[in-house]
Amino acid sequence: xxxxxxxxxxxxxxxxxxxxxxxxxxxxxxxxxxxxxxxxxxxxxxxxxxxxxxxxxxxxxxxxxxxxxxxxxxxxxxxxxxxxxxxxxxxxxxxxxxxxxxxxxxxxxxxxxxxxxxxxxxxxxxxxxxxxxxxxxxxxxxxxxxxxxxxxxxxxxxxxxxxxxxxxxxxxxxxxxxxxxxxxxxxxxxxxxxxxxxxxxxxxxxxxxxxxxxxxxxxxxxxxxxxxxxxxxxxxxxxxxxxxxxxxxxxxxxxx
Length: 256
Hints:
The protein is of the alpha+beta class. The chain has helices at residues 78-81, 85-98, 108-118, 124-141, 173-176, 188-191, 200-222, 228-244, and strands at 2-15, 19-26, 30-36, 53-59, 68-75, 160-163, 170-172, 184-185. Strand 2 and strand 3 form a beta hairpin. The radius of gyration is 21 Å and the shape is elongated.
């Protein structure tokens, strides 16, 4: 058996004295493991860093075997990612989400989104919002997608400000007002594509929204705790967005 693909390094574990088992999010073959002979060498260590994109060949006698990887570096992101908290925690948090998917199931959309977000983690105005959309995409691929396009009660597409915690569907202001205390807040940038995530409070609302459905549908049923890297990333993204916000001009005292 043999195939060629491109992928992003998620993590490693030691195998023998000189090799490693590489966990890679491949584009066509999903999250896939393989042995890298000599993976602990000085030549390969810089290549086998989480967040780097690689071109790889996988070989095994049978499809169900672990197999071996031969790989070449395509995009060396790891050095840049390690320079900031948002980069370090971001790659760890997204890797933890991808590990929720069945191994060897193809999810090319998530692979491509993963690459785009990794290249945007040094943009504080975009990183948090892109990560939230990544969590929504993971929920959808797991079969728990949210419907944020129309109001669940009236069918309208405007003034969507709530999400039903039961159905995962958007609700407009008028229909949801009597039950506002029970509703989750729908941040404006998730309701309308033309709206940007402009402040840390809006981003925090988005983190609470996706976190609620991840807990309800994924973490709690599997008996696992949310990854610490998610909270670390959320904190770093909120700080980065707050620091990037423009400072309002100081008031000038009137001249007497």
